[in-house]
Design brief:
single chain; alpha+beta; Elongation Factor Tu (Ef-tu), domain 3; OB fold (Dihydrolipoamide Acetyltransferase, E2P); 3 domains; six-stranded antiparallel β-barrel; four-stranded antiparallel sheet
């Protein structure tokens, strides 16, 4: 009985040792997995860290000709001939406000200017008549035909006519200034494209009431794209105007284009310790549109 019990204990120990020991396949697979993990880590490290002879930074893509059109006066939009993606020329009408009251005021101001111009011409003619009368009165006074009082009266009439001419001229200039002011207000009712480009955003609709300062459109021109980025102050010597950098839409630089540096800030920002740089892209790439962030590679 004791012998049978010892045999059972030995068999159980053998089974336990066989279950815990790793197989040959596992022993061979472990080094392979470790090697694969090491290679993956090395490849990721290689992708993330640029070579020592290059500096990679990032910055937003911008457009020099990009402008928000805002309302300069309040009113109701009665004309809206363009929409998003409409190609516009410089000076083309984008929208218009109701300007009927201003147009009526302008007509009134124009009629007043015309009336004052006629009054001025009338007083100028009157002045010439009185100057003629004064010269005749002076000649007659020298001949002793008329008295001194008659001659003085002629001179006073000439002086009064001169003052009246100046008064009429001042009123006419004031009326013209008022007419010009109304013309300026009328110009504020028409919103035109500041340059050739495309309507990127439309913020209003026909019949909407807008107030001063409301955004109406965003217009983007056809100028080349720019990338703006910063460099550490210690790296400021890497770039100058005219240098080339490489720009891509992805950190892996799968598709790239060259960009020419057009501006390097002459001072270092004391808060961040960096300098600002602007470069103009030579060509456009898929994925590089205003507002996106591009990767920039700089040779050291």
């Amino acid at each position: 009985m004791k012998r049978l019990f010892a045999v059972m204990i030995a068999a159980a120990g053998l089974l336990v040792s066989l279950g815990c020991a790793p197989s040959k396949a596992q022993l061979h697979a472990a080094p392979v997995q470790v090697a694969h993990s090491t290679e993956t880590a090395k490849s990721q490290l290689t992708k993330r860290v640029p070579p020592p002879h290059e500096l990679v930074v990032s910055g937003p893509i911008t457009l020099e000709q990009q402008l928000d059109i805002v309302a300069l006066r309040s009113g109701v939009i009665v004309m809206l001939p363009v929409d998003v993606d409409t190609v516009v020329q410089k000076g083309q009408l984008l929208a218009g406000l109701d300007a009927r009251q201003l147009e009526a005021d302008r007509n009134t101001a124009r009629y007043k200017v015309e009336s004052l111009e006629a009054d001025l011409k009338n007083w100028q003619s009157e002045l010439q008549v009185r100057e003629t009368d004064m010269r005749r009165a002076e000649a007659m006074h020298k001949e002793g035909i008329t008295t001194q009082e008659a001659y003085d009266h002629s001179r006073y009439e000439v002086a009064a006519s001169q003052f009246e001419v100046e008064r009429q001229r001042g009123e006419m200039l004031s009326a013209k200034a008022n007419l010009q002011s109304i013309d300026l207000e009328l110009e504020k009712t028409r919103f035109v494209a500041p340059f050739k480009g495309v309507v990127a955003q439309r913020y209003v609709r026909l019949g909407q009431y807008v107030t001063t300062g409301d955004k109406l459109f965003r217009v983007m021109g056809a100028s080349p794209l720019e990338v703006r980025f910063t460099l550490p102050g210690a790296e400021a010597v890497l770039l100058k105007r005219g240098d080339l950098v490489t720009v891509s839409a992805t950190p892996e630089f799968q598709q790239t284009t060259a960009a020419t540096v057009t501006h390097v800030s002459p001072v270092v920002d004391p808060g961040s310790g960096t300098i600002e740089v602007t470069a103009v892209l030579k060509s456009r790439l898929p994925g590089l549109i205003p507002g996106t962030v591009a990767s920039v590679r700089i040779a050291r």
